[in-house]
């Protein structure tokens, strides 16, 4: 009985860890995003890393998620956490040719 209780207790502790959101990395290199389309789940985190020797400024005007990460230099990243499903069109304020989309699923 003691072992049974301990097992239940352990599962109760571990279960939330299995539901932990994923972290997706999107690089910005040579004025391009490392992917043009990314599929994620609600609750996931997306990290935008700057690999270029100049600034980028990632933002989105999408209804699904509106954000502006500001400009930041090489070696740094900014991240977002998606809170609802839908499509997020991502752009760079400094380089208009840069764009990608994030498809957020339940
Ligand atoms: Cu840029």
Automatic annotation (TrEMBL):
- Keywords assigned: Copper, Metal-binding, Signal
The residue ranges crossing the membrane are none
Q: Please, which domain of life does this record's source organism belong to? A: Bacteria
Which stretch is the leader sequence? 1-21
As one GO molecular function, the record gives: copper ion binding
Stored SUPFAM superfamilies: Cupredoxins (SSF49503)
> Pfam families of this UniProt entry?
Copper-bind
Which InterPro entries does the record associate with it?
BlueCu_1, Cupredoxin, ET_Amicyanin
Annotated Blue (type 1) copper domain residues: 27-104
Which PANTHER family does the entry mention?
BLL1555 PROTEIN (PTHR36507:SF1)
Recorded protein name is Methylamine utilization protein
Query: Which organism is this entry from?
Result: Spartinivicinus marinus
